[in-house]
Write a structure and sequence with these properties.
Its cofactor is Zn(2+). The protein has about 850 residues and is α+β, with helices and mostly antiparallel strands. It is built from 26 helices and 31 strands. The structure holds O-methyl-L-tyrosine and zinc ion.
Length: about 850
């Protein structure tokens, strides 16, 4: 087999597979460095094409034998795989190959983690296991036999027999190879059952290393809640007799939806009050739901090709967001999601890595598991639902499932289901899938004789490879308040379809105050000339929780950018408005916590850049701190009261109410620590009986350059707990005072527990440091050099994680010429390195432009 040189793949070149697979039978004889994989695959000609080229993908496979219809063959090696001459009609391919799971550090295909065998096949890992048409539009039922002395042997589907040293699994549902999974190890199960809507009992298991079994209960409850929710809200029932989840320590991503056998990064399964924070509990619940929901959106209906990734990911993220809204607070969830879009997705969409929700070309598909595909993809589903209404949405999704069950579909198929079910023409809406960049919406107002007119103008800035942009259809949820704060026009969805468009409201007694883009009704940047007084008015009176929060956010941002540029102290509109919000006991504590928490330094840099000012990382750091001190000084009594009163009483519970109270108490603590020398945080750390309270106290101390003792105590207590120690590395590097951050991080990199080959630990330390905005962007460029050295060290072993981490450089264009030069020099150093992976190579080329 020849190495495939990096090649650009284009959506426009899609061609159907010449051969389809009727059935796959695999036997695995597991051995750490020499696992044998025997395959028996029934191929049939694809009636949809006359092409009959027989090509199988494969990478790093040692072929021991290959047969077609029982006769030995010698396939021809071609880039990325092999070709062979085959009969005109159906035939059976058999091969025996050898692979080396213990030597597989890239964590794609079959690999080992802590003595257990596991697989990761999305997107193109199956070709590292055996020869196969490794593309998602080839779907087949799989039968798998595993031979090993290990006690637990798992694969997809239903159990089909087991004995001494072997087990067989049968998956009747046709699936693409990327959903294949195998796990073998010395594992223990946390078990439960679920009875589906039609009365079938499903055996549930969460498989973990011995010692972790008492940390699975929360994930199991989340799984059962997800299964019920999908039945109730989408009418989707589970379709196998068993559903297994396995926790793995070495994993490049969060989790994977393999049919009937989800594999999770252990950080997203294992949780107990003393080791996991509230945020981790919430994330676990969401990711368990996400992977489970893929059973219908991704597995039963899959993607025709990888350009359609958002078909499964955008929809599944949208579904997990709906689930979390139903399980917790819908308002808080919407603010969290919108905030993620506005920070991280807008950052991607406005930089050198911008790409459409459905990209049109790629070199390495692993580089496109992005926040744009996932989160902006989910926003597109939300907009569709807003445009067609709840009933239309449900009808369309039902039609999509009915039509495409068992198939590999496209965005065109998805939109066609909506068009047919609702009668709506979605041709303009489709542009959202192909046009990259965040539309900027400017607003002007007119008031005359009781008529109020809002005029919007949309403009999408150019993005790499896309200079001309067309107007998009934008659902704009708008409400109007009168000057005494009453709502005079409740939320109305205006549909903007042109570059410039006006909407009028008649019969108003006085000039209203508009509340625009309620509930973040479209992923756009709203640009409206307004005053701090009006923002404070909306913070006090808006009935839409997202816009109420956004008004507070805008006040905070204007205080922070002023502090970071000319050192101005925050004004009364912000400080008084914040005080009133904090004291308003009718408001959910979680909501108040969101209003109280300040934008990050990275977000401030983004806001300054968007306003045409070059961000100065040190000034931002100092300005943010000054604003924190001003808030704490102005509201010390209120904050102290909240810190004390909001602590939930009774045993720790990770539910939304208690977590919300703790988040408000801890947001107050972070501010108080700025002015009390750390006294309250030390007390809280010493008394804490759960991880949320300990971490909040430790973080507050580290942020003021204190907390050495607490950090040591935490380290000594938790050094045997890998997930808790990941957090320690991240906090230390992320919160060290800017001028010490690099030294601290370098010292941590020499810590015996810095297992850099484990992606979670690598991300905790290197990613933690890059999150330390002023530390990473130190003027001498040594922060950039440090990260570059580590990317180059990791790349030969684990290209996917190295490439993912390289995104810390995507914001280079924001900074001054000196810093830009230093970052670009690092990117060029990477680009010029011999034997660079396709993954990292593509990323740095795109960032260099
Ligand atoms: N489909 C998974 C995420 C995932 C993607 C790629 C992976 O390896 C390249 C692993 C997992 C999800 O959406 O959860
Ligand atoms: Zn997913």
């Amino acid at each position: 087999m020849k190495d495939a040189a990096p090649q650009t793949i284009h959506l426009a070149d899609y061609a159907p597979p010449p051969w389809l697979v009727e059935r796959v039978e695999l036997t695995f004889r597991l051995a750490p460095t020499a696992t044998r994989v025997l395959s028996r695959i029934r191929f049939v000609p694809n009636p949809a094409t006359s092409d009959r080229r027989f090509f199988l993908h494969g990478e790093g496979l040692k072929t021991l034998s290959a047969r077609i219809d029982g006769a030995e063959v010698t396939p021809r090696e071609v880039p990325g795989g092999i070709e062979a001459d085959v009969p005109d009609g159906a035939f059976t391919w058999e091969a025996e190959v050898e692979v080396d799971p213990a030597g597989n550090t890239a964590l794609e295909g079959l690999y080992m983690s802590n003595g257990m065998y596991c697989t990761q096949c999305e997107a193109e890992g199956f070709r590292k296991i055996t020869w196969y048409p490794d593309r998602p539009d080839v779907m087949a039922p799989f039968r798998v036999r595993i031979e090993s002395d290990l006690p637990v042997l798992l694969s997809n589907g239903n159990p089909a027999g087991s004995g001494d040293g072997w087990a067989e699994w049968d998956d009747p549902w046709p699936k693409p190879a990327y959903l294949f999974a195998l796990v073998a190890g010395d594992l223990v199960a946390h078990r439960d059952t679920f009875v589906t809507m039609s009365g079938r009992e499903v055996a549930l298991g969460i498989w973990v290393r011995a010692g972790d079994e008492d940390r699975c209960a929360f994930a199991m409850e989340a799984l059962k809640a997800s299964m019920r929710w999908d039945e109730e809200v989408y009418g989707r029932e589970y379709d196998l007799d068993v559903f297994n989840i396995v926790a793995v320590d070495d994993f490049n991503m969060g989790a994977m939806e393999n049919k009937g056998l989800n594999i999770f990064n252990s950080a997203l399964v294992l949780a107990s009050p003393d080791t996991a924070t509230d945020a981790t509990f919430e994330r676990i619940e969401a990711v368990i739901a996400h992977e489970y929901f893929h059973n219908w959106t991704g597995n039963r209906v899959t993607c025709r090709d990888w350009f359609q990734l958002c078909l499964k990911e955008g929809l599944t993220v949208y579904r997990d967001q709906q689930f979390t809204s139903d399980m917790r607070s819908a308002a808080v969830k919407r603010i969290e999601d919108a905030s993620l879009m506005r920070t991280r997705q807008f950052r991607e969409d406005g930089g050198p890595l911008a790409h459409p929700v459905r990209p049109e070309s790629f070199v390495e598909i692993n580089n496109f598991y992005t926040i744009t595909v996932y989160e902006k993809g989910a926003e597109l589903i939300g907009m569709l639902k807003r445009l067609v209404g709840d009933d239309g949405y449900r009808k369309a999704v039902d039609l999509y499932f009915q039509r495409h069950d068992g198939e590999a579909a496209t965005i065109e198929d998805w939109l066609a289901a909506f068009e047919e079910a609702t009668g709506r023409d979605l041709s303009q809406f489709k542009l959202w899938y192909s046009q990259a960049g965040t539309p900027r919406l400017t607003v002007s107002e007119q008031w005359e004789d009781g008529t109020y007119t809002l005029t919007f103008r949309q403009e999408t800035p150019p993005t790499p490879g896309q200079t001309d942009k067309q107007p998009l259809v934008i659902p704009l949820a708008v409400g109007l308040l009168n000057p005494n704060g009453d709502e005079v026009v409740p939320t109305t969805v205006l549909e903007m379809t042109k570059e410039e468009q006006s909407f009028t409201f008649d019969g108003l007694a006085s000039r209203p105050v508009p509340s625009i883009l309620r509930n973040f009704s479209a992923p756009v940047r709203l640009d409206r000339a307004t005053t701090d007084a009006e923002r404070a008015f909306l913070l006090a009176h808006d009935t839409d929780p997202y816009n109420k929060w956004d008004a507070g956010r805008a006040l905070a941002m204007s205080a922070l950018t002023a502090a970071a540029t000319d050192g101005t102290a925050p004004g009364a509109d912000y400080l008084d408005g914040l005080g009133r919000t904090l004291r308003d006991e009718t408001l959910d504590p979680a909501f108040r916590a969101l209003v109280l928490s300040l934008p990050s330094e990275d977000e401030i840099a983004q806001a300054l850049h968007a306003a045409g000012t070059t961000p100065d990382p040190d000034a931002i750091h100092a300005g943010r701190r000054a604003v924190q001190e001003a808030i704490a000084g102005a509201h010390e009594a209120t904050l102290a009261d909240l810190h004390e009163r909001m602590q939930p009483t009774g045993p720790y519970r990770p539910d939304a109410d208690d977590a919300g109270r703790r988040s408000l108490a801890n947001a107050a603590l972070a501010l108080l620590t700025r002015i009390d020398g750390g006294a309250r945080a030390r007390t809280q750390f010493a008394a804490a009986d759960n991880m949320t309270q300990s971490v909040a106290a430790l973080a507050a101390l580290l942020a003021i350059g204190a907390g050495e003792d607490q950090s040591q105590t935490y380290h000594d207590r938790w050094q045997g707990e890998r997930l808790v120690m990941d957090r320690w590395f991240g906090l230390r590097a992320g919160l060290a005072p800017a001028e010490q951050a690099l030294d601290t991080t370098q010292e941590l990199a020499r810590h015996p527990a810095f297992h850099w080959k484990t992606p979670n630990r690598f991300r905790a330390l290197v990613g933690g440091f890059a999150n330390n905005h002023a530390g990473f962007h130190r003027a001498d460029g040594r922060g950039y050099e440090f990260v570059t050295d580590w990317l180059l060290k990791l790349d030969p072993l684990n290209p996917q994680t190295a490439a993912g981490m390289s995104k810390v450089f995507e914001t280079w264009g924001r900074y001054d010429a000196e810093r830009q030069g230093k970052i670009r020099a690092c990117l060029r150093r990477i680009a010029g390195t011999d034997r660079l992976s396709r993954d990292l190579g593509e990323m740095v080329q795109r960032m260099l432009g």
